[in-house]
Model the fold of this input.
Amino acid sequence: MVEFRLLGAMEASVNGRPADMGHTRQRCVLAALLVDANRAVPVDQLIDRVWGDRAAQRARGTLYGYLSHLRRALAAAEDVRIVRQPGGYVLETDPETVDLHRFRALVVRARAADDERAAALMEQALGLWRGEPFASVDSPWFRDLRQTLERERFSAELDSNDIALRCGRHGGLLPGLVARTEEHPLDERLAGQLMLTLYREGRSADALTHYRRTQRILAGQLGIDPGAPLLQLHQRILTGDPALDVPKSAPATGPPTAPPVLVPRQLPACPRWFTGRDQQLAELTKAVDLPGELGGTMMISAIGGSGGVGKTWLAVHWAHENLDRFPDGQLYIDLRGFDPSGEPVAPAVAVRGFLDALGVESAAMPVDPQAQTGLYRSLVADRRMLIVLDNAADAEHAAALLPGSATCAVLVTSRRRLTGLATAHGAHLMTLDGLAGPEARELLGRHVGGNRASAEPEAVTALLDHCAGLPLAISIVGARAAAHPHFPLAVLAEELQDQSARLDALDAGDLAANVRAVFAVSYRALAPGTAEVFRLLGLAPAPEIGLAAAGSLVARPAAATRAVLRELETVHLVQQPVPGRYQLHDLVRLYAAERAGDDQPAESRRQALRRLTDFYLHTAYAGDRILGPFDHHSLELGRPAEGSTAQPLPDQTAVMAWFRTEHAGLLAAQRLAVEQGWDVPVWQLARVLDGFMWRQGRLHDHMALWRTGLAAAERLGEVSVRAWAHRRLAHACARAGDHDDALEHARLALHSAEEAGDTAEQARVHDVVAWAWARRGDDRQALAHVRHALRLHRTGDDRLMEASALNGVGWYEARLGDYEQALAHCEEGLAIHRRHGFRDGEACTLDSLGYIAHAAGRHAEALAHYQRARDLFHDLGNTYEEANTLANLGDVHLGLGRSDLARRSWQRATDLYRAQHREKDVERLTAKLDARAADGAVPPGDG
Done:
């Protein structure tokens, strides 16, 4: 038996004995999990709950240590586990073992029960409190939770007082009411309870004195008079209203009830154009079925998403599809939490509307708003009803309207992520994204007609691309197209092509059918600092951005950046598809960029973009130095812009992972630098991306990178920079099979290197010329150039380049049949690479040695060399050379009579070639595979 106590000092007991849960911070980890018992809490969220803004870099490791200690402390407890799931850590336990969850469950049951039963349940619930919860904890999350729990306790106390007063049990209330009134002098409901208790105790004068005191406090602190319920009670005390006396009959069975209740049918019409969302509809159905399986808890589903994504359509469509589940009626209200035309609907106003729908006549309507809420919950108790709370401003806005009965189901929609509903009420959270391609096409087709859409498939594709899956945008486009049935859809697609005017085109002349207006409501709700971050994110050149890059863009440390991004994610202006990666919907990005243009000073925009460019440049440079430790790779970058901080990358694995993740962002940063006229970063980005591009075999991107870099180098007019750019472009062209361009750029590179008097650069150019001639099939020309390169390298002090040239000489000698000399040169180069720990060079040279051994008929030796080379290439992320080595391995396996292994190696090589768009290599290996399948023969040619 285990018990967890949070409503006071944090304590735990196992089998009746106190359990040592460690120091305060470790107990906070336990509490943070218990509050969400049986639900996954992400690691970042756990850290934020426990440490807040004070989280150190080592907080994650410390958290893991605390979790290990807690597991050991709870080892003796049956049915209690702390487990890791994809969504985070989960503490699995019966909710009844946690006093917080017992308290909430008892209060819910009390509010749905008759007075006799409710009084006992409230007494039991309030008896669980032992003091102030989390009194010694100072993180923002625990402070907010402490305040929330105190409000829940206070609300339960007020409900308990009302029950006691209705039952005539006021005798023991007075001391507690006096104490609470001192703590809450502005609470009119509490003041009324104290006045009624004093009146029933025969102390009418004291009751009237307390009214006057409350009246003075309200006027002095808030500048208002008491509300109608308190005024009415004051008047009834003055006149001695007999209805205020202690009930003479048996205790009441509940609060005043209204005449027979109607069956409300408040749902709006089912959305005509609703399309798709099968998965989400099934998820909602599953959620409403779950309470029965869990033993009678109320189903709450909170649908979140950006404006215009179709939250209301989904909720209303599902409701209409499931009317039979709710025979006692459906309540609906648009809470206008994000409405361009006015303020949100106050919960009291919403409750009054629900009571009207439930048939409560004006004469039977309680005056006190809280009494109205109580009556609403009583009327829907034990009835199978659906309550749809559309467009809530936040979790608190919706929570005030929740029924208390497990027989009811609630659908809430909001642009804000309603985490508070999940935490406090167990709501099922759903985030709605844009429509997938087929669903988007179906929605547009329903607007314009299937025949019209089929007649212009390219225009339809363009329109859907411009709408980026946003149902509101698609519907606006569909409505505009339907208004002009004889206009080609291509005309509208052409209008939307212009990004600067796209939001203008997505305006149907109504605030509810205007994409810009919909986004503006969310934007205006942001705090100033959050709004600035949103604007700057709209300037980012790539569709996705990492946390570190975003931090440099907005000039904030990681923790502060994460907090702001979390807020933007909460209101669905930013999405986080994978941990630490953020993106804006295409139309939201256009709006953010538009706001940046209007609200962000030009110099501030320029500085933000320079910080982002410097982040990519300096991080990529540090990574490139790890990938290729050649002396000539060093580069004088200067200091990054103030507020820009490079991301630490500890090793080659981390470097390659970062380059792969940030590939689109890096190329976009180079394009951004071109647009801004920053020529130095343009060619420097080409240099620092070169090693990664080379390893990955991204041939077209590699050539485009260096064509852009060369143009910047020529504008700069620096001969050494121009030599480098021509040489690397020559190498990229040769690899891509563009041999004429490769030789031409090599010629220009050699000319620039000679003009600069740079012998080492001349040697590197001859290496590239050799490669270009080899790709044209002239190994003799290649050997002549690489020998010349070797002679030049030996006059310098770059041993790794010398080793690379030795491997090149050996390779071309082997290609020409001089295996003895080839072996000597390659072994000499291998020794240098290994001595300097350069694994790339080692892998390339091992591949050459494998070729030499295979050509000489030493298949077992060739196999060993090739396998070691392939392993190195794989570990280094060099998929270009890994593919070549796999192809060669297939040939060796065939020579050893291992046909299955040969086919397997060729197939893996073919897959890599295809991913790298190396079509000639694909054709060559496909021919080998087909030949083996046909007759077991291998076409002539090497691998």
In short: Residues 447 and 478 are 5 Å apart (CA to CA). The first helix runs from residue 24 to 35. The radius of gyration is 36 Å.
